Amino acid sequence: MILGKGKNNPKRNILHCSATTKHITVGNINDYHKTLWHSISNLGSYCGYHFVIDYLGKRYQTREIYEEGMHTIGQNRSSIGICLIMYPDTEAWRYGVEPYMPSREQEISLVKLLKEIEEETRISGISYHRDFTKLKTCPGNLIPASWGRDLIRKGKISFLKRQLFLLRRYLLFLLKKYE
Fold it and tell me: Which residue segment(s) compose the domain that 103 sits in?
């Protein structure tokens, strides 16, 4: 994760959806954002989000953490923008796309990213784009308000279970070694 320096003083993570098919790439998003604004990031991307996670769970960093984003009006100097390639919205049908939820791989990648961001910046949790404007349903009206919080909690529980498993295994090893 590249922190960098810039005008962004992040206080929150903001989740977005690409509102596209599953097969869109970060390159496609970059090309589209290039047509909207011609501001290139320190990492050489036109993408307004700091991170994009594709449907297979692969994560791309397109802006440095402390670099101003271009993803949420009024929040670009105080947030980290994260976009999942997904379209969990009933509006999708209007555009000929079947709505779809984030993949398990995306959820795992998002939880991992949020943990890394928290370690580096002390920012925890996640807000939705729709929390900052009445004009958007992003990340989608099929995503309940509790989804991000529940996902983070589940990720922390999974992490703790894994740590307990490893500790138990190590203790068994020690017991056998010193019998």
Answer: 12-177
